[in-house]
Batch of 3 targets.
Target 1
Amino acid sequence: MWLLQSLAASPVPGVPLIAYQESPMEVSVTEASIALGFRSRSTIYRLLKHGSLSAFERTSPTGARRLELDGLAETVRRLIRRQVNSAISKTSATPAHDWWGDVAPICNRYLELDCWGPPPWSALQWSVLVGVAQMAAEELSNAG
């Protein structure tokens, strides 16, 4: 069936048209910038100009610049500095978040939670919290 379709589409009668078939993971620069969450193509073009993305760059028979998506996101995230207003999402659990998740149960063991009301807390209560957090951090570092 493919041969019949390619023969019908061929400009030369009887000679099958061998069409360039893009890999489903090859996209244009615009499509790559959208897939990576950028607001414009400028970051992708800057990385291409510097040769940082040469391993992902492809050229179609028409001369169009294409990019292989497989592994592109990880490479771009490694090459650029994340801005505060960046569309690139943060990792779900940062090391600081994990660390406080380990410290919190130790702090709760030291504190008598029934004695603590809701905030705002006094300066004395804050100083106790700081001291307890330091003791918990020390206990955690000695355990690891």
Target 2
Amino acid sequence: MARGARSRTDVAMPCRGERTLRVRAGVSMVLAAALVVGCSGGDARDASATSSTGSENSGDALPVPAADACELVTRDDAAAIMGVPAQVDEDSAGGRSDTNCHYVNVPPADTSEGQVLRQLQVQIYSGARYFDATGVVFPLDERESLDIGDEAFVHVSDTIAGVNVQVLVGDTVYLFSYSETAILAEEQADAGAKQDALVALVGERLGAVG
């Protein structure tokens, strides 16, 4: 199928677990449904399904990234981005990705006054077709190109989508998604404030072109 005719199911996108989606009481159901289109599939944490890093095609200028999402970005990395302790959400779906790692913040002991749900998901896909080159999921006029890997961009939204960094290295696509959702809390959720930190982390792990 030609790139211009691709559907959402052919493009890498955040695929968070059902339990996480249910807790977002104020989120538009239409938007939530759009984000989980194409998220069916087996458990992406299965080690037998981890992807190739694409290092053979990307040249000596790029480091060799970890093939497992939870090794590429660790729990400590996630906690540094969130600013609070993080844990792996074992209920998360990986969709069509080969390996998926979904971190959420550790809930505070007292949630009577609400909380902010922070999420960082890392997905690795085998196949350049999963790179959103034509803006099927992340509109071209709403994103900024990055000098990471062979091709990359960052997309920031004030909706459930949050901050998304997508990178193409050889024949491998990496998607890093960060979001914050206020749940009955006075504290304001602001995923966009983490853009620089997320982009810096991705650049460190996947390397800049040059």
Target 3
Amino acid sequence: MRAALLFGALVSSVFSATLTCEVSEDGQRIIATVEADRNYDSTETRSVTFYWSTEGADWDKRERTVELPATHSKVWDWRSYEPRPGNVTVTAILDGKTIEDECLIKRHQ
């Protein structure tokens, strides 16, 4: 029984979250989605902070904090697609851990 309790404590402390960044189907938005393990044992709302930056545009930075309700696994943020002079990098912080993704912007010529 003691080994089972120790194993459970190790498994519950493992951090698992992903961040994906993509352009919406209609081409109007860049959507960043954080997906984390659900915690059915908790009633606490967690916060996810999104940090947006655009390559070659120091003026185009944004920070936004979004709540991830207890027992939920996904939260998202979005920005308008245009005008972006370069690729967009999104960083998210959840439970003190940092995850990052880059959205490649295709320019029409």
